[in-house]
Amino acid sequence: TTNPTAATLKVPLLPYASLMYPEARLPTMANRLMLGRVLVGIGVGFGLAIDPLYISELSPPEHRGRLVTWSEFSINVGILLGFSSSLAFYGLEPDAAWRLMVGLGALLPIVMIVLVVCVMPESPRWLVSKGRNEEAVSVLQRLYGPDYNVTELTEAIHESLQKEQEAERTMGWGILLYPTPAYKRILLVGVGVAASQQIVGIDSIQYFLSYILEQSGVTDRKMQGLVLIMFGLLKVVMVFVAANLLDSKGRRPVFFLSLIVIFLSLIMLAINFVVGGENHSSSFTIFCLALYLAAFGVGMGPGAWLIPSEVFPLSIRAKAMSLATFVNRFVATIMASTVLSLTKVISWAGYFVGLATVAVIILVLMYLYLPETSGKSLEEMTVYFAQITGDASVLEVEEAHVAAKTIELSEEGGRRGGGEEEDDDSASGGVLS
Residue 293 pLDDT > 90, yes or no? Predict the structure, then answer.
């Protein structure tokens, strides 16, 4: 394949295009429906893993937070369209409404297939890793503009890759199974942040928003649809806010702000359900849910994919990002599948208190273990984590490369100096003669 990233990006799109319409035509075939759901789930998993990685590998360090956030923006646009479908098909029979909703899900993936094939370039870092430096330079020149010295950037990518490969040759799969302190911190941060996104309860709350609204007295289907659309619009808007904050203020402050507001909104929800009992305020519930979704959208939502996409070294990027995505979706499945059982035992108020407690724990762990990665190039990350953890194995490799580079530059300078002396002698000889 000449464009493997493009080929990988097609994977999450093909299940929609190939199976969604047959499902819409044959809704009574439960096996076909479940097969489609499974394949779409696999495709979504590929998309969640590859999208932020691809964007981060094409982005300059100073704009990486803003650009990777567009991945979360796309997810929220999809959620908004899903919320809007309940209102758009409000006048139809339920059987017809869900068929149209599922069938229309194939349209955007078809558009994306065309864009992937015709527009999107291959990752320059992947090209360098395969020795295709000229193609990498061409891609970088298109991305950074004609005035940018992309040759130096290509050399930096190549040197970083050499160092990572040398460390990987030393340990092999042990980098993941028995990581050194630097790689252990990298995996802890990358996978931990991905898991934390779901532990704060976003999917368990988002999937049951209609149920929570109904429990709060909003029983009219049309009103529920309007409230859901408002939530969807709010999340989309907050992604734009996050795009600016993650680069201008840094990753850590935005995460901390997000988790603090998530904690407050969940506590207020719990108090509302306890104090109001069965007649608790529906308007206050909507306000608290909106505050929770806004706080999630500004930090934990986009940040949970930004951090893994930028901290994993190129040598383990695919394996580590796959692990982070698996953990994220596994936790999401557990959270979403247990919410109703838990609320029957501890009530919705107890469930919200539990999520608020988890948010505080995550806040403390992030304060202790999450370093600030804003403004760092992808090639600097491994050494940056090695300096934080005092990882001698990585730092020794870095020192060896610096020493080799110094010797190479001095030898090159010596050759240039020798050439200049020869030129001077030739010129002097010519004058004397």
Answer: yes
Mean residue pLDDT of the chain comes to 80
Contact 63, 247 (CB under 8 A): yes
10 Å Cβ neighbour count for 1? 8
More confident call, 302 vs 424: 302
Looking at residue 58, what is its pLDDT? Answer: 81
Whole-angstrom Cα distance, residue 300 to residue 193?
8
What pLDDT is recorded for position 17?
A: 47
Q: What's the chain look like in SS3?
A: CCCHHHHHHHCCCHHHHHHHHHHHHCCCCHHHHHHHHHHHHHHHHHHHHHHHHHHHHHCCHHHHHHHHHHHHHHHHHHHHHHHHHHHHCCCCCHHHHHHHHHHHCCHHHHHHHHHHHHCCCCCHHHHHHCCCHHHHHHHHHHHHCCCCCHHHHHHHHHHHHHHHHHHHHHHCCHHHHCCCHHHHHHHHHHHHHHHHHHHCCHHHHHCCHHHHHHHCCCCCHHHHHHHHHHHHHHHHHHHHHHHHHHHHCCHHHHHHHHHHHHHHHHHHHHHHHHHHHHHCCHHHHHHHHHHHHHHHHHHHHHHHHHHHHHHCCCCCHHHHHHHHHHHHHHHHHHHHHHHHHHHHHHHHHHHHHHHHHHHHHHHHHHHHHCCCCCCCCHHHHHHHHHHHHCCHHHHHHHHHHHHHHHHHHHHHHHHHHHHHHHHHHHHHHHHHC
The pLDDT value recorded for residue 22 is: 46
Contact 296, 202 (CB under 8 A): yes
Q: What per-residue confidence (pLDDT) applies to 225?
A: 84
pLDDT band, residue 63 (cuts 50/70/90): confident
Give mean pLDDT, residues 46-52. 79
Condensed to tens digits (0 to 9), the pLDDT of residues 197-215 reads: 999 999 899 889 988 988 8
